[in-house]
Amino acid sequence: MVAVTTVQHGAFPSAVVEGPVSCKVVAADDESRWDAFVASQPEASGYHLWRWRRVFEQGLGHRSHYLIAERRGLVAGILPLVEVRSRLFGRALSSLPYVNYGGVLAADAAAGAALVDRAAAIARERSLSFVVLRHRHRLFAGLPARSHKVTMLLPLAPTADAMWDQLDRKVRNQVRKAEKSGVVVESGGLELLDDFYRVFARNMRDLGTPVYGRDLFAAILREFPVEARLQIGRLNGAPIAVALSYAYGDWMEVPSASSLREHRALCANHLIYWNVISSAIAGGTRMFDFGRSTPNDGTYHFKEQWGAAPQPLWWEYVLGADERLPADDRHSPKYRMTIDLWKRLPLSVATAVGPHIARLIP
């Protein structure tokens, strides 16, 4: 791993803070200090919270290395890291898997650089190939980076009525179509997980994508019983569309959503998103995050029609001396062939095998 103490910085506070910085891997008794620092930082995401450590350990079965940078005994930065070992995707430290945000959260550039240096040292010690940091902004101009994904953001109006008036007429018609078709939306927690996962797993198989395991979503709902909610769109009582929402501060995101192909003409997913958005507004949320997309694909255009605008996501890497950026071969013939084969798997097989693959994506 290449040392990164001299990287250029892009989005840290400009004030110069004096004094040496030390970094250490922290244990469970540092949870309160960790979360207090997260709460003090305007650039924090909900995924920086300590409880996500338990989600990754219990829901994905990974080892975590949570780093704190200190200056004169005070927290100056944090970096949550999850160790993922895979022959298929590589041996990596990820900040963070599954979710869209994570990475370095620091009060100043020196603390941020010290955290990345410590992450590189851990990767060397554990014979890992790379460190990947998922940031909202370009933080370390000296690191190789990829910005092949975007998140779609929609500023919310003060009231649901005002938001409704801002929506494109086609979107409003699709929401009404779902209502007139008899689709109803139920919101809840763990008690809805079976219905959520049944639709989610089938849709992932139909898309040719290995599905994350049920244990991941169970862990999220256990750790965040208020912030994380499931929405189930039902037709005659049967689940046909689902979503997982997650709230932090005045920000709400839908990291996972699915609908059954044979019912998509009913626009149940539109009704679910409208229910989530209107509930978010009622709770004081000011920004709605539709989640990660590849520019110009189908989900990108679905989110765009709501008025959401793309914001680049920056994945910055610390690489070993002989390592290259992990391949992005989504458009290769081999990748397309793999997707086509996965779509043909029996649902029971895809649901049994998929989680063992998905959990290994850094």
Q: How would you describe the overall organization of this protein?
A:
The mean pLDDT is 92. 44% of the residues are buried. The protein folds into two domains: 138 residues, Aminopeptidase (3-Layer(aba) Sandwich), CATH 3.40.630.30; 129 residues, Gcn5-related N-acetyltransferase (GNAT) (Aminopeptidase), CATH 3.40.630.30. Strands 1, 2, 3, 4, 5, 6, 7, 8, 9, 10, 11, 12 and 13 form a 13-stranded mixed β-sheet that branches. Helix 2 packs antiparallel against helix 7 and helix 5 crosses helix 8. The protein contains eleven helices and 13 strands. The protein is 35% helix and 28% strand. The longest helix is centred in the first third of the chain and has 17 residues. It is an alpha+beta fold.
As for the CATH topology of the largest domain, it is Aminopeptidase
Distance between the termini: 17 Å
**Mind telling me the C-alpha Rg?**
21 Å
Tell me the β content: 25-35%
What's the layout of helices and strands?
Elements: E1 22-25, H1 31-40, H2 51-59, E2 63-71, E3 74-86, E4 90-95, E5 105-106, H3 109-125, E6 130-135, E7 145-155, H4 160-166, H5 169-180, E8 183-188, H6 193-207, H7 214-223, E9 228-235, E10 238-248, E11 251-259, H8 268-282, E12 287-293, H9 298-304, E13 309-319, H10 333-343, H11 347-358
Parallel strand pairs: 4-6, 11-12
Antiparallel strand pairs: 1-2, 2-3, 3-4, 3-5, 6-13, 7-12, 7-13, 8-9, 9-10, 10-11
Helix pairs in contact: 2-7, 5-8
